[in-house]
Amino acid sequence: MTLPTGDPASVSALGGALLTQSARLADLVTELGGSAARAARASQARRRPVDDVSSHERLLLERAATELDRVGALLQAWTTTSVETAARARQLAPDLARADLVIDGQVVVESSGPSRVDPQTRARERQRLQELLNRVTMVRARELARLGRELQHSHDALAAVALDARAGRSATS
Question: Within a domain: residue 3?
Answer without folding.
Answer: no
